[in-house]
Design goal:
CATH topology of the largest domain: Heat Shock Protein 90
Mean pLDDT: 88
Helix content: 25-40%
Radius of gyration: 25 Å
Structural class: alpha+beta
Strand content: 15-25%
Shape: globular
Number of strands: 18
CATH architecture of the largest domain: 2-Layer Sandwich
Number of domains: 3
CATH class of the largest domain: Alpha Beta
Number of helices: 15
Strand order of the largest sheet: 10-9-13-14-16-15
């Protein structure tokens, strides 16, 4: 395989790496840089791929402006029995990218032309800068500056990536003036972002049977809650034939996960609209605000070219292993669903995943559902209760700061379904009130 407009080879890690990456950042399709392969495509390998990976990240982090963090991914691969590195670079939303040392000049800006990185003309630099997108979550100042990030810190700690005192700056959660930006607001412990998951009995929105609301917390926590809910809804269907027993789910689990994460990461939050998830009798609809990013065609979208709308979110989700690598989401979905499942409009992108069988059955022989509803929040709550615990202790264990969110989405549903009970039922508002599991709750936790 030879070099192309989207593929560059380097035999070893050397000077000039930033130049090649900048050229891909400024190119409308991005590109891939292989290190450990010569210009003819012969594999030479790397003696210390782990060390080189750290050096690459350091070079790209410190020598490129605007920040390229969240716009590249470094993947270790083995080719012909030798270690190589694959640097996947997305097309950046804040062109022109340039070498920090030379600024936005012909010595600092590059563009991919054919199979080479060429200097940009000053005219092209000026035109790109004039059209640069200013309305992004990294530039918008958060309307609240008293934000906490305990949830985010815990998620990083769980991945053995503890955040230091400079994490706001390192994760680009501040504006150039040092104020917390809208990305910070989305990732904070408390915000006003509400994510809806609705369930309808039929094929239209007329007969609503269930409505769940996730949010008012870190977007990462909301994403995990929706993933848990979708996994709960994605029931397994068993078909027994004379020869074998076949099992499959309503929706392909891999494609479903990618679709949910894509909706969160690529949603246009500048419109103050969150992604929406709706389950119908015959399908699942996932709607996110904002259509295709500027400069990305439908064919490029389906081929996996990546222009992250929210690079700050992309970086955090990659750090927490919610995103595998740049540009992998749509190709993964299309391994199981075709292009007709994607609907584009001027303001929204909707993914429609047909269900393998009807989510609801019209058969009169089906016994009505009487099992108590175990939502992800309720399940999380009952898993934490051992003995008798207070509301304050439960909120602390769940890392929830918003009392209203805890009461509406966790405590009241668990009480209503009979999973937990009051220790002082005659005085529900008692300061000494605590909660404990019922037999039904203990059964639900075991299951």
């Amino acid at each position: 395989m030879t070099e192309t407009n989207r593929i560059e080879y380097k035999r070893e890690l050397s000077e000039g790496l930033e130049k090649e990456v900048i050229a891909f950042l400024n190119y409308r399709e991005g590109g891939i840089l292989y290190i450990g392969i010569d210009i003819k495509g012969n594999t030479y390998g790397l003696a210390d791929s782990d060390g080189d990976q750290l050096k690459i990240k350091d070079k790209l982090k410190n020598n490129i402006r605007p920040s390229a963090m969240g716009l590249f991914d470094i993947v270790s691969e083995v080719r012909d029995g030798m270690d190589i590195l694959k640097v996947i670079v997305a097309s950046g939303p804040e062109k022109p990218y340039h070498l920090k040392k030379y600024g936005m000049s012909e010595k600092g800006c590059f563009i991919r032309l054919g199979s080479a990185a060429e200097p940009m003309s000053q005219k092209m630099i000026d035109e790109l800068f004039a059209s640069r997108t200013r309305n992004s979550i990294g530039i918008i100042k958060a309307h609240r500056q008293d934000l906490g990030f305990e949830q985010l810190q815990i998620y990083y700690q769980e991945r053995q990536k503890p955040l230091n005192k400079q994490f706001r700056k390192n994760l680009e959660l501040t504006t150039t003036n040092g104020d917390l930006n809208y990305a910070a607001y989305l990732l904070a412990d408390e915000n006003n972002i509400s994510v809806k998951v609705a369930k309808y009995k039929g094929k239209t929105r007329v007969d609503l049977v269930e409505s769940n609301e996730y949010g008012y917390c870190s977007l990462v926590k909301a994403s995990k809650s929706v993933l848990d809910k979708m996994n709960l809804e994605n029931r397994t269907i068993t078909q027994i034939t004379a020869k074998e027993r076949k099992e499959h789910r309503l929706w392909n689990a891999i494609a479903l996960r990618e679709a949910v994460i894509n909706a969160f990461v690529h949603n246009d939050y500048t419109r103050e609209i969150a992604p929406k998830f709706e389950i119908f009798r015959d399908r699942l609809e996932i709607t996110s605000a904002g259509s295709l990013p500027e400069g990305l065609s439908k064919s490029e979208f389906f081929e996996g070219y990546s222009i992250p709308r929210n690079k700050e979110l992309m970086r955090v989700y990659k750090d927490l292993d919610l995103v595998e690598q740049l540009g992998s989401g749509i190709p993964r979905i299309m391994e199981y669903y075709d292009k007709s499942c994607f609907n584009f409009s001027d303001n929204f992108l909707r993914m429609v995943l047909p269900s393998a069988v009807a989510v609801y059955s019209d058969s009169p022989q089906v016994t009505p559902q009487v099992t108590p509803q175990v939502t992800p929040q309720v399940q999380e709550l009952i898993n934490l209760i051992n003995g008798e615990v207070s509301r304050t202790e439960l909120q602390a264990s769940l890392r929830l700061l918003d009392r209203k969110n805890f009461r509406i989405n966790y405590l009241i549903p668990a009480l209503d379904e009979g999973f937990i009970e009051l220790t002082i039922p005659d005085k529900p508002r008692s300061s000494k009130q605590k909660y404990r599991l019922t037999q039904e709750g203990k059964k639900a936790r075991q299951e």
